[in-house]
Write a structure and sequence with these properties.
The complex is a heterotrimer of chains A (262), B (269) and C (109). With 269 residues, chain B is an alpha/beta fold. In chain B, 38% of the residues lie in helices and 24% in strands. Chain B has a domain at 1-88 and 167-178 and 194-269: P-loop containing nucleotide triphosphate hydrolases (Rossmann fold, 3-Layer(aba) Sandwich). Classes of the chains: A mainly alpha (262), B alpha/beta (269), C alpha/beta (109).
């Protein structure tokens, strides 16, 4: 019994410590970003990795989600005889909720895990130490470009996701089930307010920073945890950890942002 | 650049203590590393050599004590001064620590590109000069994953000396290398000292290379300096632990056959 | 580092002194390349150089290569101990034309 209590205590402390370190990393990144030299090229490379390379995945999942939504909404709305609301339903759920969340989760799975593994390997093979000894700040050289790239890429990917998902819904509703094109489009245009777009944008910006930051911190601070002495196994451990943690963080903050803004 | 006043000691360490949790890793280290010479810090594994190195490099904060490098006190130094100091230090890490996304040449150029505004041609020529020194010129376009152990170490060495540092640290130069490759590296280290006004600190447990390259030796064991001196002085040391390390006994001969059998089958004696 | 150009009969004499390091080698490089562009043979007096780092050496190498392509003489004069050691280490002593007197250089022109 006492042992279990003790475990809870340890977990809480470790959790708090890691949260603290993650936010400390955010401050360090902001501080480093404010100082020259500015490295646009490394940021561009990270945007390519996090953003451009995720594009096909985002397009495929966006179309699929849009089609699934179209299917579900159609079968529900048909019962009430209000299929003219199909466009509004698909657009609102995609723009407000599913677009930012699904995009963020996809980026976590594709790029986030790679970020953690990369930084973790760099840490255990002394590459981070080497940078420091060359008087090159690892925060600035390794972490900051990734966080900035997340901040820029995730909203853009979300925009792509949203538009292809709307097309997916259109395909199912208008092309497959014969809903009038005008009612789908007008319903969409009437229902979506600037507020909804802004909410989606705010979410995607926060998710972008949150997931890259968590994934960076997990790999970058790997040596401070138990996994640090476990070599390759440790890297796989922190990578799994980072994916789980950032997915939960996305879902939870999605709720928080939703609650605050409505 | 103004002439830096000649310092007798490149590094002075006083009463250095490092605790890790409740364990004391370094216990009151006092060490003077003379400028322009090769200092070998040797000791068995777990003796605290790498912790000492990490403290000197500013990668680990000591619990107490002082480390003075080229006249700068490292413990509690301002980030900007540490930055300036690090540009005068080159480090070749044990596993090379090369950046896997960059070729050999790009790895070596990184400090130049980050810290200097030299012309592209100058950077290229400097890179080739250093690559030629370590016999890696034919391999400049290879990626780190394609290198053998010896090549990795040589590339790491080239990267460590690209800025012409005053201090060169080499962590376990001969680990994981065959004897002839490791002998080549030893010669390279001596050559660097002779022609480039460098103070070189080598961390190793490899006895062969210790006595070949060292001007001074510090023997470290269980977090303490056991003995310091020239190779001759170390050889003549009366300290038992030092002698133990020098003549690492071959495995003891089996005297008690029964006891040996019990050890092998795992029964407690 | 100080570096000054003295036009001599038929060639330029570049007098170099002090420490040639990464701060000053860009200046050295520019001076050398500019002289060669002007079409003059160049003799660099290294007698008062107390230290030269690899960026300085790299500038000399580039100068030598450029001079060679332009078919101009490029010599190093009175190279001092420390600098000579660096040249030997990098095996560049086999490449450069080294002179102990300006007279010798002039005769070879």
């Amino acid at each position: 019994m006492l042992k279990k209590l003790e475990n809870i205590g340890t977990y809480t402390l470790t959790g708090l410590e890691q949260t603290g370190r993650t936010f400390n990393l955010l401050l360090l990144v902001l501080w480093e970003l404010a100082r020259p030299p500015y490295r646009f090229y490394t940021i561009v490379r990270q945007i390519y990795f996090i953003g451009a390379r995720s594009l096909s995945l985002i397009v495929i999942s966006g179309v699929t989600i849009g089609m699934v939504l179209g299917l579900q909404f159609y079968s529900i709305l048909e019962r009430f005889g209000s299929v003219n609301l199909l466009g509004a339903g698909v657009a609102l759920s995609v723009i407000r909720e599913l677009g930012p969340v699904m995009t963020a989760l996809m980026v976590v799975g594709r790029a986030g895990s790679a970020i953690t593994a990369e930084l973790g390997i760099m840490r255990i093979t002394e590459q981070v130490d080497a940078l420091e000894c060359m008087a090159i700040s690892p925060n600035k050289y390794l972490v900051a470009p990734k966080v900035i790239a997340g901040l820029i890429s995730v909203p853009l990917l979300t925009a792509v996701f949203d538009s292809v998902a709307l097309f997916g819904g259109y395909f199912v509703g208008v092309v497959m089930f014969g809903v009038a094109e005008g009612s789908y489009m007008n319903g969409m245009i009437d229902a979506v307010e600037w507020e909804d777009v802004r909410l989606g944008l705010v979410k995607s910006v926060i998710f972008g920073v949150l997931i890259t930051l968590i994934c960076c911190a997990k790999g970058f601070y790997m040596h401070l945890t138990k996994a640090g002495s476990q070599g390759a196994e440790g890297v796989s451990f922190v990578t799994t950890d980072a994916v789980v943690l950032s997915s939960i963080a996305v879902l939870f903050s999605d709720f928080l942002i939703g609650a605050i803004f409505s | 650049m103004t002439e830096i006043p000649a310092v007798e000691n490149a590094i002075t360490i006083r009463d250095l203590v490092v605790d890790y949790g409740t364990r004391r890793i370094l216990d009151g280290i006092n060490l003077d590393i003379p400028a322009g010479q090769i200092m070998v810090i040797m000791g068995g594994s777990g003796a605290g050599k790498s912790t000492l190195l990490r403290c000197i490099l500013g990668l680990k904060k000591p619990t107490s004590g002082s480390i003075n490098i080229l006249g700068t006190e490292v413990n509690g130094v301002r980030a900007r001064d540490m930055h300036a100091l690090r540009k005068q230090m080159g480090v070749a890490f044990q596993g090379g620590a090369l950046f896997s996304s960059m070729s050999v040449a790009e790895n070596i150029q990184l400090p130049l590109r980050e810290h200097t505004r030299l012309d592209e041609t100058t950077i290229e020529i400097m890179t080739r000069i250093k690559l030629d020194m370590v016999n890696m010129l034919p391999h400049e376009h290879l990626m780190p994953a394609e290198l053998s152990g010896g090549m990795t170490k040589r590339t790491a060495l080239a990267r460590a000396i690209i800025m012409d540092p005053k201090l060169l640290f080499f962590d376990e130069p001969s680990s994981g290398l065959d004897p002839s490759t490791s002998a080549e590296l030893d010669e390279l280290i001596i050559m660097l000292k002779n022609s480039m006004r460098m103070t070189i600190i080598v961390i190793t447990h490899e006895l062969d290379s210790v006595f070949k390259i060292a001007d001074h030796i510090a023997v470290i064991g269980e977090g303490r300096i056991l003995e310091t001196g020239t190779p001759e002085q170390i050889r003549a040391s009366t300290n038992l632990e030092v002698q133990d390390l020098l003549h690492r006994k071959a495995r003891e001969t089996v005297v008690d056959a029964d006891a040996h059998l019990r050890r092998l089958v795992g029964e407690e004696e | 580092m100080e570096c000054s150009i003295k036009p001599e009969a038929g060639y330029d004499l570049l007098q170099l002194s002090g420490e040639v390091d990464m701060h000053f080698s860009p200046e050295l490089r520019e001076t050398i390349l500019e002289r060669i562009k002007a079409g003059n043979p160049l003799l660099i007096d290294m007698g008062n150089v107390s230290y030269i780092d690899s960026s300085g050496i790299a500038s000399l190498v580039e100068g030598y290569q450029t001079a060679k392509t332009a078919n101009l003489a490029f010599g190093l004069l009175n190279i001092s101990g420390a600098a000579m050691q660096v040249l030997t280490l990098t095996r560049l002593d086999k490449i450069f034309s080294l002179y102990t007197s300006a007279e010798q250089f002039r005769q070879e022109l």
